[in-house]
User: What shape does this take?
Amino acid sequence: MKITLLGASGKIGTHLLELALQNDHDVVAYVRDSKKIKTTHPHLTIVEGELSNIPRLKSAIESAEVVVSTLGPPRKRTYEYLPVYEAHKAIMSLMKWNGLKRFITIGSPIIRLKNDPWYVATAFGTLMAKVAYPKPYKEIRSIEEVVEQSNLDWTVVRFVAATDKDTKPAKVIPDNKNVSFKISRKRIAEFIMSEMTQNQYVRAMPIVGS
Assistant: This one.
């Protein structure tokens, strides 16, 4: 499979890049700083560019079978404009232009859907995000809305508490009982990798825990 991965040098993206290469997929990693990619592999192509560089983005995704973003907004109370949201808009527009359909990104259950069950953890998280991180909250909300309204075959993988410590494998909430909201970034990457090949949650926003 030909994969374009945005955010390949991030905490989730690093795990996902490793998994994809282990499974002999061809990966184009789009990053701002190529020096942050420590992996070398015959199936890996690195494209360096800013999220606002449309020609570079276009060159990175034009031969992809699936485009995956593990980009998230900065954990700051406020910052200039909405860089990750604008990147998502540009990526999806370029995908449509190139006739590409499959898009997977990450999100958060702080943005509730109509059919989401009520949980204390997500309700409290939503309140905290609105107060402590109003700009990231707005950006996450904007990303999920623009993805949902697109005509792509999208999936938004949502999670509450990502950690670098190992956890049990990812489980979808509320399909499974006795699930912790804490989940390792490696397990999130495994879930995304599985979704790339199985397409179980197309046009859906599964919440994963462990």
Observations:
- Residues 29 and 104 are 15 Å apart (CA to CA).
- Strands lie at 2-6, 26-31, 44-48, 66-69, 102-107, 153-158, 161-163, 171-173, 182-184, 207-209.
- The chain has a mean pLDDT of 90.
- The first strand starts at residue 2 and ends at 6.
